[in-house]
Structure formats: structure tokens, C-alpha cells
Amino acid sequence: MGLEAWYMDGSDEDQRKPHRLNPNQPVTLDELKKLGVFYWKLNADIYESDPELEKIRKDQGYSYMDIITIQRDSLPNYEEKLKMFYEEHLHLDDEIRYILDGQAYFDIRDKEDRWIRIAMEKGDLITLPAGIYHRFTLDETDYTKAMRLFVGEPVWKAYNRPADDFDIRHNYVASLQGSRERDRVGGPVRQPSLMGEQKGTVADFQTFAEVDKISFICKYRLIVIT
């Protein structure tokens, strides 16, 4: 079974509950990609020697790796930590998580600022783009074991909302506006400059989604295609 995601209700019940709307409103992988979220399904039983995982790490530049276990018996101040993880925040770098065992939820904001819940289970690898508002929680099983991946040295700093003044947030929002324009015109459009640190233009691609994916992977640095 592939990754499952849905729009959340507004209930204040336990964050570990599913919080589905009634009727349920599912979110597809294509819709997640438009928000910069990418997903792979891997065999977590062979994560130590998995050639597919190694290829992903090489292709994406994920040079750092560690493993964290989150459960009530092993994490001091468990309830307080879980509440901290659930604070809405963003990072200045992509967040990459690979679930090796157990289950968890990532919640992300869509283009209209609505919450989408992404259900993670064993074998799910996900990347959240820098600048996206999100939060994390376990489900009612209170257990997950996850691999954390990072490009270069890890930076774990989280910036709680509001954090709209960061350049990376501006760049992420700009990428969403570009995606809206593609949906509106129904075809490829020219990608605007996403960062002031480099000047140039981005050539048209066959589909705007290709530009979206490259810009997300490269953390919104302007790419000059010749």
C-alpha cells in the first residue's frame, strides 16, 4: 500500500488520533509533489545494505545519516517532547525521514494554509522542502524508529511560526505561486527567479513540474539551463 494522506479536521482531540474529515478528503501523491513533498517506498528490512537507498542518497547528496527511536519508555520527558515536535515550524533545509519501524504522522500546510496529514509507516521515505510549515507526531501506537538524512552536516534548528521573514520561506511561497500559474494556464510557464543570489533565466521545460522538482531539490537556487 502506498503513502496515505488526507485533509485534517479542526478537532483539539489527542494529536495522535487520525483527525480525518467526515467524509474523508484524501490527498494524492501528485498533489503532495506540487507542494514540494517527495516520496519513496523502500524495503526497511534491508536498510543497511539496500542498493536503492544508496542510490537515492547518492543522487540527492544525503551524506549524513543517523537513526532515532521515539517511544515512551526510552525518550525522557516523552509527552513534553511530543508536544514540542507538534509545534508548527519550518527549517532552512529539507527534512528527510525514512521510517524503519513503527508509524508516525507529518502534517504540512497546503497552498491555502489547510492542514494535510501524511501517514508514515515502515518503508516510507519522505522529503519535506525547506520553508514549508509542518509538524510531527507519533500515532496512537507511540512508537517509531526513523533514519534521519541530511545534505552535509546536519542542522536541527526549527523556527516556530511565524517565520515568514526568512528568505527560504519567501522562496518556497514563490514556488507555490508558480505552481498555481501552471495550473491556471494548463501548460508550461517560465519560472521566475527564486533567489537574488544569482542572476539569469530558467528555460522552459516540457512540464512546469520538472522545474518545480529541480528547484525544490536544489533548495530554490536559480538554475540556468543552456
TrEMBL record:
Pathway: Amino-acid biosynthesis; L-methionine biosynthesis via salvage pathway; L-methionine from S-methyl-5-thio-alpha-D-ribose 1-phosphate: step 5/6
Protein's name in the database: Acireductone dioxygenase
Function: Catalyzes 2 different reactions between oxygen and the acireductone 1,2-dihydroxy-3-keto-5-methylthiopentene (DHK-MTPene) depending upon the metal bound in the active site. Fe-containing acireductone dioxygenase (Fe-ARD) produces formate and 2-keto-4-methylthiobutyrate (KMTB), the alpha-ketoacid precursor of methionine in the methionine recycle pathway. Ni-containing acireductone dioxygenase (Ni-ARD) produces methylthiopropionate, carbon monoxide and formate, and does not lie on the methionine recycle pathway.
UniProt entry tagged with the keyword Nucleotidyltransferase: no
Main subcellular location of this protein, as a coarse class: cytoplasm
UniProt key word Cell membrane: yes
GO MF term set: dioxygenase activity
Catalysed conversion reaction: 1,2-dihydroxy-5-(methylsulfanyl)pent-1-en-3-one + O2 = 4-methylsulfanyl-2-oxobutanoate + formate + 2 H(+); 1,2-dihydroxy-5-(methylsulfanyl)pent-1-en-3-one + O2 = 3-(methylsulfanyl)propanoate + CO + formate + 2 H(+)
PANTHER family found in the cross-reference section: ACIREDUCTONE DIOXYGENASE
Binding-site residues for Fe(2+), renumbered to this chain: 89, 91, 95, 134
EC number of the protein: 1.13.11.53, 1.13.11.54
Top EC group: oxidoreductase
Comment on bound cofactor: Binds either 1 Fe or Ni cation per monomer. Iron-binding promotes an acireductone dioxygenase reaction producing 2-keto-4-methylthiobutyrate, while nickel-binding promotes an acireductone dioxygenase reaction producing 3-(methylsulfanyl)propanoate.
Annotated compartments: Cytoplasm; Nucleus; Cell membrane
SUPFAM superfamilies, sorted: RmlC-like cupins
Gene3D superfamilies according to UniProt: Jelly Rolls (2.60.120.10)
Keywords on record: Amino-acid biosynthesis, Cell membrane, Cytoplasm, Dioxygenase, Iron, Membrane, Metal-binding, Methionine biosynthesis, Nickel, Nucleus, Oxidoreductase
